[in-house]
Amino acid sequence: MIELAGIGKTFRGRTDVVALTGIDLTVAAGEFVTFIGPSGCGKSTLLRVVADLTDPTAGTVTVNGKTARQARLDQDYGIAFQQSGLMDWRTVARNVELPLELRGWDRRRRRDRALELLELVGLAEFAGSRPAELSGGMQQRVAIARALATDPKLLLMDEPFGALDEMTRERLQAELTRIARESGTTVAFVTHSIPEAVYLSDRVVVMSARPGRIAAVVDVGLGERTDDTREAPEFFARVTEVREALRGRTVVRAEER
Amino acid sequence: MNTRAARIGLPVLAGVLFLLGWELLVVANDIKPYLLPKPSAIWAQLTRNIDDILTTSARTGTNALVGLVVGAVAGILAALVASRFRVVDSLLVPLAAAVNAMPIIALAPIFNTMFSTTSAVPRRLVVTLVVFFPLFVNALRGLRQVEPIHRELLDSYAAGGWTFARKVRVPGALPFVFTGLRLAASLAVIAAVVAEYFGGLQNGLGTRITSAASNTAYPRAWAYVAAACALGLVFYLAATALERLATPWRTSR
Ligand SMILES: Nc1ncnc2c1ncn2[C@@H]1O[C@H](COP(=O)(O)OP(=O)(O)OP(=O)(O)O)[C@@H](O)[C@H]1O
Ligand SMILES: [Mg+2]
Asked: How many domains does chain B have?
């Protein structure tokens, strides 16, 4: 679904910033991959490269078997940015409707779909509110609903749960894994939370900073997520593995000793 | 609870006290009417000439309104074009700055000679020019000020330039447009009144003010000035009301 080969990104300026270098990664269709790493290691930049919102200065990107540009023009992905990016002048529901509007859905269908998604993120009763009347976490949830609106085959999400309380966060994590599994959606997800990364993903891509590169890739392999997943010993083992990788160490898995 | 009452009541109370103080000041110091007439004398003139005040206000108001609408539409359209095409932008902005530096009202006598003396066109033209600039500048500022994240979002939907303008640029610019419109509404009335000071048709508030003043009928001149103030206020309030209607997300807070 996503193929990254030798991706590099240098921001030119008074002092050049090497945001990414030598990124090679293949994300299979239906796979859930999480990116984790210290602030400024280029996670958002990498997502923008995949989304064709910025050009890499080296390497090639293939999305859904096409160039990243073509995938964007075909609207193959849905995206949720690090900031919610809602439009003040639209109501909450109309914000969620925006991508549908641009696809020419009729009003009725748009409205129904928006309400369905607002229900999912627990904001149905705020459909008619203005974004400014919502808290930061609520705005973030509206942005998630907007990203899901078109039912995209590929979801790009940049710390979408960052501003949420723990309870909402866990509920939305469970919803997201359910949606991704049921619809076979491929997800590229950025987070700062190790347990979140482990809970959500098939693979965790651990990045290091200056320059941004892939330090390790952790295969999670926890099978179907249930309420007990978060308390399972394998879960904690993977959390430790990711944490060690973030510290620049590798742990040998018990079963491989 | 009674904040609404206070919001309206306090300015009214202040106005009444102000007029009372004015009256007392004039009476106590025996100030001559050509310096400052009593509010009561002005009021008497206002009620005596009310029919003429209303008809002249309507004429001046029409000039101001026509100029305001034409100037505003032209200013907004020019800003839209300038925001879309860089070439136009680099041509129009210095030109607009130059026009703004010019005292446009000074053109009124020249326009008067360009058109027949029975025409309202020169006055409306002055108003149009006066209105154009604040709308152009404010609209352009609003149109240019796009949040990068909205740009990226619309790019992710593969939206074209006009879709982007319609969904993001224009609604995002509306608050700026209305800031310009509020400013321009008051300016339009001022320009419409002052343009009449330079001859031409003898049928508006401005001409009544000059003729009363030259006939030493000072309280009457002041009565027409008061009408001009009221007209300006009406325009301003109408612009504010329109703003509330068109940008509800800003006033709902
Ligand atoms: N438009 C830009 N111009 C110049 N430098 C940039 C730009 N965008 C990002 N950078 C630089 O690239 C590096 C990576 O930024 P990026 O936003 O991708 O980090 P991140 O991993 O998402 O960080 P965080 O976890 O804090 O969101 C940073 O050093 C940043 O300063
Ligand atoms: Mg980031």
From this structure: 1
pLDDT at B212 over 80: yes
Please identify every residue whose CB atom is under 5 Å from ligand 2, which is an ion: A 44, 82
* Residue ranges of A 45-104 with Cβ closer than 8 A to chain B: 48, 51-53, 72-75, 77, 79, 81, 83, 85, 87-90, 98-99, 101-102
CA nearest to B248 within chain A: A89
A2-76+169-256 has which fold?
Rossmann fold (3.40.50)
Residue, of A178 and B3, whose pLDDT is higher? A178
CA of A42 to the centre of ligand 1 (A): 5
Domain carrying residue B97: 55-252
Cα–Cα distance between B205 and B214 in angstroms, integer? 14
Q: How many CB atoms lie within 10 A of CB B14?
A: 10
Examine the pLDDT at A8 and tell me if it is beyond 80.
yes
Task: Name chain B contacts of A52, Cβ cutoff 8 Å.
Answer: 155
CA of B134 to the centre of ligand 2 (A): 39
Distance (Å) from CA A17 to ligand 2 centroid: 15
What are the structural domain ranges in chain A?
A: 2-76+169-256, 85-151
Burial, B4: exposed, middle or buried (Cβ in 10 Å; 0-12, 13-18, 19+)? exposed
> Residue A37 — left, alpha, or beta (φ > 0 → left; ψ -120 to 50 → alpha)?
left
CA angle A143, A147, A151 (to 5 degrees): 150
- Overall residue count recorded for chain A in this entry: 257
CB of A209 within 8 Å of any CB in chain B? no
Closest A-chain CA to B175? A89
Nearest Cα residue to A59 out of A105, A26, A107, A85: A26
The number of the ligand 1 atom at minimal distance from the alpha carbon of A48 is 18
- CATH number, domain of B157, equals 1.10.3720.10
Query: Rounded CA gap, B61 and A239, in Å?
Result: 74
Residue B253, pLDDT > 60, answer no
Instruction: Report the greatest alpha carbon distance in chain B.
Output: 75
pLDDT at position B81 over 80: yes
Q: A32 has which bridge partners?
A: A187
Q: Using 50, 70 and 90 to split pLDDT, how confident is the model at B215?
A: confident
Give the predicted TM-score (pTM) of the model: 0.81
Residue ID of nearest Cα to ligand 1 atom 2: A11
Contact across the interface for A85 and B172, Cβ inside 8 Å: no
pLDDT band at A257 (very low <50, low <70, confident <90, very high): very low
Is B75:B128 a contact under the CB 8 Å cutoff? no
In-domain check, residue B32 = no
Asked if the structure places residue B119 within a domain, the reply is yes
Distance from CA of A244 to the nearest CA of B (A): 34
